[in-house]
Structure of Aldo/keto reductase:
Amino acid sequence: MVTLGKSGLEVTPLCLGGNVFGWTADEATSFQVLDAYLEEGGNFIDTADVYSAWVLGHDGGESETVLGRWIHKRKNRNHIVIATKVGSLNPEAPGKPNLSRRHILRAVEDSLRRLQTDYIDLYQAHRDDETTELEETLATFADLIKQGKVRAIGASNYSPQRLTEALSLSKQHGYPRYESLQPFYNLVGRKGYEAELEGICLKEEIGVIPYSALASGFLSGKYRPDKELPKTQRAQGVQSRYWNERSFAVLSEMDKFAIYYHATLAQLALAWLIARSSITAPIASATSIEQTHELMGALKLQLDQDTIEALAKVSEGL
C-alpha cells in the first residue's frame, strides 16, 4: 500500500478505472472484474458522475450505480477506497465544467445515492471550471469534509497555474487542499505532465493517479502499423494521437523487454509508471477477469534501472 498525498488514505499502487462499468462491461462482468481486483489485493477504485454519459441512452452515473450495487451486495465498503469526480457532468450547460457550490452540493448527494454509501474517500474536481472562483469550489469541498461526506479532495485535468493557485488559496484560507492530481500521463504521452505538473506534485507531496496509463490500449500492443485499424471511435482516437513512428518505436523497445521479463506490454507500461517517484497509482481499466489479473501482474514486475532508462529514452519528448 502507498499513501495518497498527505490524505492518510492507504491505496494499492494500481487504481482500477471504473469508466467501463455499465458501458463496455455490463453489470455482471463489472462485478467479476471488481471481485478479481479485490482478490488480488486491490482496494482503490476510480469513477466519475459523468461515466458514461457519452453513450447513446445514458445520462451519466451508470458507473457509480454499478459500483454501488456491487458494494451493497458484497458488504465491503470498509475495505475499499472510492474515488469519484464532479464537474464534468453539467445538465445546465453540457460540455462545460461546473464546480459551483450549487452544482457540487447537488452532485455529491447524487453520487452518494448511486454509490450506496454515506461518504466518498476521494472527491475530485473533474475539469477546471474557470467561470467559478477557486475559493467557492474549495470552500464547498471544505464543508463536505466537515460534514463527513468526503474524506479528501483531488484535482483532475488542472493546469500548473490553476493547481498552484488552488494550493495557495487552501493554505491562505485554511481550506483542505487538493491531495491528489489526476493528469493524462503515459509512456507515449509524457510532456504535459512532466513539464511543470510533476515538479509541483513532488514539491507539495501531492499524490498522482494518472489516467490513460495504457494510452487507450495503444501500449497493450494491440494496435500495430501492419494491422488493420478497428472501425471504432476509440481506435480513431488512438490513430490521431499515437499513430506515428516515435510511438511505434516505443512499442518495438517494449517488445524486447517483454521477452526479457516474460511480461505483457501492458504490464511493462504500468510498471514503468509505478517506478516513477512522483506517481502514486496509475489508473487502468479492465473488461474481463483475465485483463484484471494481467493488470495486477504489473505490481509484481520490478524493472531494473537500465530498463527504466531505456524506455524513458525512447519515449523522451512524446
